[in-house]
User: Fold this.
Amino acid sequence: MKIKKLLRIEVILIFLSLFTLVSTLVFKNKGTKNLNQLDLLISELEVDFTNNKNQNGAINYEEYSDGLRKKFLPLTYYNEKIEKQLDVVLFKFTDKNTSTDDFLTECIELQKLLRMNQRELNFGYDSLMVSSLFLLFIAVAVIYYKSTIQKNELIKLQTIENAQKKFSRDLHDGAAQDLAALKIYLQSDEKEKAVFYAEHAFKEVRYLIDSTHLDITAGFEETVKEILNSFEKNFAIRTEFLCASQGIAKLSPDVQLELLRILQESLSNAARHSGANCITVRIADVVDTIHFAISDNGSGFSQENLDEDLQNHYGLSNIKERVAAINGNVEFINKDGMTIAVTVPNPV
Assistant:
């Protein structure tokens, strides 16, 4: 409700600023048009002065004067100088001793006052238009800022929701299944197997907790080493890390973060399903791409099982989605274990 109310206020400000801008333009154009008409009227006045002088005052002064004053009224109403100068011009108009040059001089003075007055009005109009544009810009900027904040909040909530879903699925795929097996072996009094699954569930939960705290400020390679050290500590599976890439450090933080999440997902999958005792992570620049490969020496998959798991297994499908999000490609190579080979464009 508060957001809608604020947006309503900003929309009202936009409407008012546009209304003021358009109205000001209309009045300014109208003022310019009136000035041109009064200029034309003064030119006609000069002709009438000559004709009246030649015809010895044939023009009815009172009617002529009243008509002229009505036409000048929008300006003389609030401008005393123009009103006085108009009186001078009208007086000269009826004065038989007024020469044509003298009358023209007074008319020119009246035109100067009119133009000066119009310049002052235009300055006011222009100031009002600038203020309206400034108010319009502020209102639009505030709306854009708030919409950006809302969008970022939505993205943040979606990210949190996705992380929660992933965490719950990881628990289900790993620790929950281990605990289910633990329960079965406890009921059947198979102590050795029960202890194995209890330890595996404990390692899985501890690794999941460690993986939620991911900080890449120390650098991509250092973060990979921390992930591998945590993995070795929790699962007692040896890891190797080989990096021959200059481009990996140049990738945007978003792409680096996705690659680290792919690494975590791959390690978790290997710990659950491969039976491997060694996992190797390689990073290398190849032409215009960066190759990021995670290989294990485990049992691997049969091609039939691999195709099925690519469709149904959450871990592998999640890797595919993450790679697609960073405009990369991924291959699942089933040879001497399992290799997940990711390629992304090299920014160098």
